[in-house]
Protein: 1,4-alpha-glucan branching enzyme
Amino acid sequence: GNWSLADDLCKKVASGAAVCKCQTGFSVLTCCTVNFSMYSLFYNRLKNIEENEGGLDKFSKSYKTFGVNQFVDGGIYCKEWAPGAEAVFLAGDFNGWNPFSHPYKKMEYGKWELFIPPGQDGYPPVPHGSKLKVVIRAQNGELLYRISPWARYVVRDEDKVNYDWVHWNPPQSYIHKHPSPKRLKSLRIYESHVGIASPEGKVASYKNFTYNVLPRIKDLGYNCVQLMAIMEHAYYASFGYQVTSFFAASSRYGTPDDLKEMIDVAHSMGITVLLDVVHSHASKNSEDGLNKFDGTDSCFFHSGHRGNHQLWDSRLFDYANWEVLRFLLSNLRMWIEDYRFDGFRFDGVTSMLYHHHGIGTGFSGDYNEYFGLHVDEDALCYLMLANHMIKFLHPECITIAEDVSGMPALCRPVAEGGGGFDYRLAMAIPDKWIQIIKELKDEDWNMGNIVHTLTNRRYEEKYIAYAESHDQALVGDKTLAFRLMDAEMYTNMSVLSPLTPVIDRGIQLHKMIRLITHALGGESYLNFMGNEFGHPEWLDFPRRGNNESYHYARRQFNLTEDHLLRYRFLNAFDRDMNKWEEKFGWLASPPAYVSEKHESNKVIAFERAGLIFIFNFHPYQSYVDYRVVIFKYEILLDSDAAEYGGHQRLDHSTEYFSEEYPHNYRPNSLMVNELVGISLHTISVN
Structure:
């Protein structure tokens, strides 16, 4: 925010005179050269916006002038950016779909505008709920009927393939009643998809999520919900990652006001709401998407090969383009200010950061992988601008980067030359659990490797740990529960059936994996909806390949309410795990001190937030009088307790005191009376 200081710094960088100490964990020379270079690019771009657009505030509010907007007097102002168009018109229900009666006036830099005065009675000429199209006369003379890139509401009739643009301007919009929660120290994120948030085989609604799912999230102890597939996407099975209308909330779940109410109710419960935002690419749809909006191959995207993602079959934004920056920054601001989202999880950041998009590329941590001509500096500069804008205008908002590459300083402040994100996803952790369960016998699990994966993160950058997300739930993959228990989940999850070794092992390891990830893996925690109780089977959206079935596009929350099923044990453990984090705040505490990772005993022990966590991963060996580093303890959370489907082998009523017996480089230790096989114990230290 100190622009005179920043300006002086950039001048020194330009002259090669700046030398600073780096605190981001890589070499000072590399940090200075690259970070100051990126900061200089960011600063110059921001300065251009300030000088030519009246400031970042005005620039990022362009959603109030672009598209179709109504004045107070009822008049309609329309504005589009279509640099490749020969002419632009507005057609719709309001003018009998006459494609030429309402032409736009050409402006500078490829912009077009149109003003339609109010009627004599003061009513708007384009009524709420009427259908519209922008008509583009392309350079070859062809007329193209397009949805405005700034459209706020689009719908699809059941008998149609493409979406229609519907003018959304109700006489009375939803009024938010509750303030946003204060910025959280510990994020416990419930990753959610509105459409599948019901046991019924159908597309669920915003209303269903508001009144049936939010209370469940609150009860489970999650304080943040991350919403997927909100930005409108024509193809439901894309999981929301092939966006067609960036400013429109998906109409398949309800109206924009329904979504606003849902967020407002979440805020009333103290729940922070994040949007899974997709600015890394866009759908190739042209009839109801951004592609070829003005009849050219470029417009919002790079032209030719560079503008296409070969794996995702989608279009790639030109982040150096002035109007693309306007579009994307305004998009973020609209979601914050109109809908009251509290921040974003940026999808596909790795694809944005590199010209190779991470395709066919591994990342070993060598700094040559992060700095060089293969880095897309314009994309990285956009992310810096986005984070700067969000923090400058709404400092309470949170941003998360989905980056698998481990780009250094991505979660350091922009003022340090960093990317400006608050958190990054610890994407190596779920991969590690899958690899262990899939490839190794229980007795071959490597305690040191598990600890290394859970603690291997960049210095002073915050990570969101998770054992599994939506990626592992999708068809073609398996959730942890399904990998651990597989076919027996169909036959032996009833308490009336015998507790088989497979189900017993699966239930215990499911709890242990989640808690050690929660407590050791980062500064926040994420869970995908339903996985907390070991949701059976996989997730698959209706498509041709499954005869348009909704059978797997749902979440069977009812399984936890049946007291004859063992799913309730996992659900209870997840809830209590979050409850204890809320009380002790280990996610907001400094990184854990790992006092033991014993390979032959298969024991991991560590300290964090005044608690001792002890995990016995041995498949069959229990230990009596097991010595650990501790002063005094009582058991708080025990995976072997009856309420979590355990065998009740430990006495919770006893307090234990240490002795002056050095162990694992600590002066005091004690004997844990019993450490049972495949179990964990969370211990309060006094």
